[in-house]
TrEMBL record:
Descriptive protein name: Molybdenum ABC transporter periplasmic molybdate-binding protein
Transmembrane intervals: none
Native source species: Hydrocarboniphaga effusa AP103
NCBIfam families, A to Z: modA
Quaternary context: The complex is composed of two ATP-binding proteins (ModC), two transmembrane proteins (ModB) and a solute-binding protein (ModA).
Keywords for the protein's UniProt record, in alphabetical order: Metal-binding, Molybdenum, Signal
Residues bound to molybdate: S33, S60, V171, Y189
Gene Ontology CC annotations of this record: outer membrane-bounded periplasmic space
Alphabetical list of Pfam families matching this protein: SBP_bac_11
Signal peptide, first to last residue: 1-22
Record flagged with keyword Lipoprotein: no
């Protein structure tokens, strides 16, 4: 009887171990613009013998609100400092783990083959440079839309173009609208524009026209132990650094 039970008991122990391991999957809430890079890094993490993290991508604003409401997240990666500040002020992240990890640039795009002249300077009549809508994230809410509005105001273009702006839930949605030609122009991150063969980058907005584009990451309060390891990997791994750079992000911290 004991010999008969031993394989069964071993199987139960193995299943229990695998279940426990699966329960340790790190739950990452990340800005939509990080989709491609973090998906690749998650695959690297899994290849290293770890449980694949669970990734949820959306606008930083939406994710921050979900975390505030108690959504089960271990880590938050925002596309701007404001939404990380929002959670920190409410005691929802571990402030000691917060790192300004990445940088990005803001670009003006158009559907492929439908370029128009755009000069990044005050005095240029941007609103008359093209017909149709301008897509970006919802101004005042979604980070890319916040940066876009800052840039348009700095260049003196905001008031004239405001009635034609289509504010979207996140940067990837804005990119998709331009890809389909539903918007004649778009303001997105350079990293998102680079993944599409259906849009053209026409120009880069001056860095001094908007706040620095910074991606802070931090652990959410009561994060699982595995989350600390994954955050350390994002911060210190040469493989993760190379992946972020391959996707066009600027590393604000250096891997050793």
């Amino acid at each position: 009887m004991r010999l008969f039970l031993r394989p069964f008991v071993l199987a139960l122990l193995l299943c229990s171990s695998l279940t426990a391991r699966a329960e340790e999957a790190v739950r990452v809430f990340a800005a939509a613009s990080l989709t491609s890079a973090l998906t690749d890094i998650a695959a690297q993490w899994k290849q290293g013998g770890h449980t694949a993290p669970t990734l949820a991508f959306a606008a930083s604003s939406a994710l921050a609100k979900q975390i505030e409401a108690g959504a089960p997240a271990d880590m938050f990666a925002s596309a701007d400092r404001n939404w990380m500040d929002y959670l920190q002020q409410r005691g929802r992240i571990e402030a000691s783990t917060r790192i300004d990890l990445l940088g990005n640039t803001l670009v003006l795009i158009a559907p492929k083959g439908r370029r128009f002249r755009a000069e990044m300077r005050r005095g240029f009549d941007f609103a008359r440079a093209f017909d149709g809508k301008l897509c970006t994230g919802e101004p005042g809410v979604v980070p890319v839309g916040i940066y876009a509005r800052q840039s348009l105001e700095a260049l003196g273009w905001w008031e004239a173009i405001r009635p034609r702006i289509v504010g979207t839930d996140d940067v990837r949605t804005a990119l998709n609208f331009v890809e389909r030609g539903e918007c004649a122009a778009g303001i997105v991150y350079a990293t998102d524009a680079a993944i599409s063969d259906k849009v053209e980058i026409m120009s880069t907005f001056p860095e001094d026209a908007h706040e620095p584009i910074v991606y802070p990451v931090a652990l959410v309060g009561n994060a699982r132990p595995a989350a600390r390891e994954f955050l350390r990997y994002l911060h210190t791994s040469r493989e993760a650094a190379a992946t972020f750079e391959r996707h066009g992000f600027t590393r604000l911290t250096s891997a050793p």
